[in-house]
Automatic annotation (TrEMBL):
Residues 14-79 form the RNA polymerase sigma-70 region domain. This is Sigma-70 family RNA polymerase sigma factor. GO terms for molecular function: DNA binding; sigma factor activity. GO terms for biological process: DNA-templated transcription initiation. It comes from the Bacteria. Keywords: Sigma factor, Transcription, Transcription regulation.
Length: 164
């Protein structure tokens, strides 16, 4: 892989790593699993990057790869993540500390979201990230109408979970 492509990947990943951290938070329930899933998503993004054609924003593409990786691993291992060893060039990506204490007030919301199915988690996550229904539908591969209907159902489900 050429140096420009590698540098482009590292730059894009650094700018968008919070997306990956948030997805990891949705699909894991401890720090070690979070780190393992983050690593696996990064590996999958790296493997797929040469095929990224720029037809959508990097963040949209990264959402799709990260969510697919998390959902696939979540289903396969039932909440434990087996990582793939990456034997290749070292890539130095500055790690941004992810502070769990800052998110303590969101604990109840995360507990409620953990009760949703995989697709519902992905949809609510993108909605909470202020993604419009066009981007949500493009990322998840569903129609905008379907995304809106699912979102309304998810909101109702979360209300029942949070206010029994």
């Amino acid at each position: 892989m050429n140096k420009n492509l590698e540098q482009s990947f590292v730059t894009q990943l650094q700018e968008n790593q919070n997306i990956i951290h948030k997805i990891c938070r949705l699909y894991t329930d401890n720090e070690d699993a979070h780190k393992d899933l983050f690593q696996e998503i990064t590996i999958q993004l790296w493997k797929a990057f040469p095929k990224f054609r720029g037809e959508s924003k990097f963040s949209t593409w990264a959402y799709r790869v990260a969510l697919n990786t998390a959902i696939t691993l979540y289903r396969k291992t039932k909440r434990s993540v087996n990582t793939v060893t990456y034997e290749g060039q070292q890539h130095f990506i500055k790690d941004v500390d992810y502070n769990y204490e800052e998110e303590e007030q969101l604990k109840l919301m995360y507990q409620a979201v953990h009760q949703l199915n995989d697709i519902e988690k992905a949809l609510i996550f993108m909605y909470l990230e202020d993604k419009d229904y066009h981007e949500i539908s493009e990322t998840l591969g569903i129609s905008e109408v379907n995304a809106r209907v699912k979102m309304n159902r998810i909101k109702g489900k979360l209300k029942k979970i949070l206010n029994p």
